[in-house]
Amino acid sequence: MAPVVRVAAAQIEAGRDVGENLAACLRVIDAAAARRARLVVLPEFCNHLSWYADRAEAHRLATRPGDEFLTAVADRARRHGMWVKINVTHAYAGGRTGGTNFLFDPDGEIAGSCDKQTLMGAENDFLEPAPAVGPVVATPLGRIGMYACMEGVINEVARSLVLRGAQVLLNSLNSFALDEADLHIPVRAAENKAWVVAANKVGPLLPVDQLPDIAARLGVPPQWLHGAGESQIVAPDGTVLAKAPRTGEAVVVADIDPARADDKRRPDGTDILAVRRPELYGPIAEPPVGRSRGPGAEALPVAVVRDAARVRTVARGGAALIVLPELACSPAALAAALDGTPAHAVTTVIEDGAHVGVVVGAAGVVARQPQLHAAHGLAPTGKRIHPVDLPWGRLAVVVGDDALLPETFRLAALVDADVVAVPYSAQEPWELALGLPERAAENRLNVVVATPAGQPAAIFAMSTDFTLWTRWQGPFTGRISTPVRTDVPAGALVAEAVVAPAQAANRLVSRRTDLVDGRPWRLVDALTR
Fold it and tell me: Which stretches make up the CN hydrolase domain (predicted)?
C-alpha cells in the first residue's frame, strides 16, 4: 500500500436529464484525474434528481448492470487508471430499487457495492433500504468503506465500517443542510480516527418548477433547497484538509496516509475502540419500540459550575440542574448547598475503586451511574444507563470517558433520556467541537458538559425547529439538527443556559425518518459482537 494517496471529492448538480448528469460525472472524474487523484468520490444520486412521481418511475429511471450510465463511468475509471466511487438509484431483479454505492477499480470493474441502510424522508417512498451491510474493500489505497448522506447523520454505519477494518470512509451526499459540512461529516472521521472523503450535491435538489411551492409550504426560502456543497476531505483528528465552495461544480484534492487510521489512541494512550464494551450495546440491535414517555418540560434552567462554593447561589438563583466537573465535591456537601431548593446537581465520586456519577438533591443522592468503560486505571462496573425521573423530565448521566463513545449516548436515548449530564475532561479539540454536539444532534438529547477549569465546556440544547416537511417556525439557517450551543469559556466558574427537555421527544428529522428508531438496528452486528 502506498504511504500517501491523493484523493478527490467532487460536487455536481444533477437534475432530471440523465445524459446531462452523466456528462457532469465524467467531467469531474476527468478533472480529478488531471490533478493526479487516484480516487474520486461523487455525490449521492448522481444519475437523477431524487424526486419521482412514484416507486415505479424511480425503478424505471434507475441504473442497471451494463447500462450506458454505469458503463461510461467504468470506462472513465479504466481510461484514467483510477478508483471512482459513485452513488445512484439502482434497479435490482424483482423490482427492488436501492440507493446504491459503487466503487470502480482502475480496470473499470466493480470492486464493491452496497445500498443505503437508512433512508431520508421521501426516499422511503421510492427506494428500499439495504438488506445487508456494505463491504470493507481492501485496495492498494487502503481499506475502504462506503456510505451515503443520512447514514452519516447517525453513527452506526460509519462506526460499523471502522470496526470491520475500514481506514478510509467514502460518503456521497444529496443534502441542503449546512450542518453536514461543519458537523456530521468531520465527526465521523474524528470519533473513529479514520479518513473521510465526502462529496455533496450543488444546485436544486427538488424539481425547479415545484421549488417555489414546496419552499412556501415549508417556510424555507427556495435558495436553501439547493445542495449545500462544501465537499471535503477530513483527517482522522477531524481536521478538514480540503473543502469545496458551497455553490458550483468543483473538485478538491488532498494527500492522505491511510495507515494513520490504524492508530486509535488518544493522547493518554487510550484506544478509543479497544475500550468499547459490545456486550452492553445489545439494545442498539433491538427492534425499535418508540418512546414510552411523553415529553418533559418545555424549558429547564441549567448551569455548569466549576466552583462548588457557588452551587448554593446558582441553585437559589433558579437553576434546576447543576453539573460540576468530575470529582468536584462530596455528595454530602452538595446536598447541604442545595438545601431549601428543588435543584439537583451532578458530579462523580470514587466508590469502592470505581468511578460513579451521582445525582444529588437536597435530601442526598437520588441516583448513581457507574462508569461503563475503563478509564484512568479504573475498571468499569456499569452495565447499563440508569436514568432518573425528575420533575422536569428524565436525566441520564454519562461519566467521564464514557462520553467518547457514540454508543453510550445512543443507550441514553433508548431509555428515553431528555437531558444528559456529562462531568468530563477533554483531551483533544474535536471532543467539544464535534463529538459532544453530535451526540446531542444524532439522538435529540439536551447535553450539559462540565469540564475542569482551564478547559472549555458547553451546553447543548434542542431547537424547537427540527422536523423537515413541517413548516419552519423561525428563520431557516440551513442547519437542521445542530443543537443550540452555549459555550463555557475555560476560565468561567459559572455558566447558565436554558435547555428544552420536551424537544427530546421529537426525533423525526423528516417524514418516516426517526433519528433513533431509524438506526439500522438489523445491521449492527459489528457494534454488538
Answer: 5-258
pTM: 0.97
pLDDT digits (tens, 9 = 90+) for 48-105: 999 999 999 999 999 999 999 999 999 999 999 999 999 999 999 999 999 999 999 9
> Which CATH number characterizes residue 488's domain?
3.60.110.10
| Whether the Cβ atoms of residue 324 and residue 357 lie closer than 8 Å to each other | no
Q: Are strands 39-41 and 240-243 parallel, antiparallel or unpaired?
A: unpaired
307 inside domain: yes
Tell whether 345 and 481 lie within a shared domain. Answer: yes
Cβ atoms of 447 and 459 within 8 Å: the answer is: yes
What is the DSSP track for 421-477? EEE----SHHIIIIIHHHHHHHHT-EEEEE--TTS-EEEEE--S---TTS---S---
Please name the residue that has the C-alpha cell 413548516. 471
What is the three-class DSSP state of 13?
A: coil
- Dihedral sign, Cα of residue 327, residue 333, residue 338, residue 344: positive
Task: Assign residue 467 a region (left: φ > 0; alpha: ψ between -120 and 50; beta: otherwise).
Answer: beta
Look up residue 470 and give its amino acid: T
Q: Do residues 216 and 111 share a domain?
A: yes
C-alpha span between 433 and 488 (Å, rounded): 12
Please give the DSSP secondary-structure letter assigned to residue 247: S
Enclosing domain of residue 425: 278-528
DSSP E strand boundaries for 95-135: 97-104, 110-115
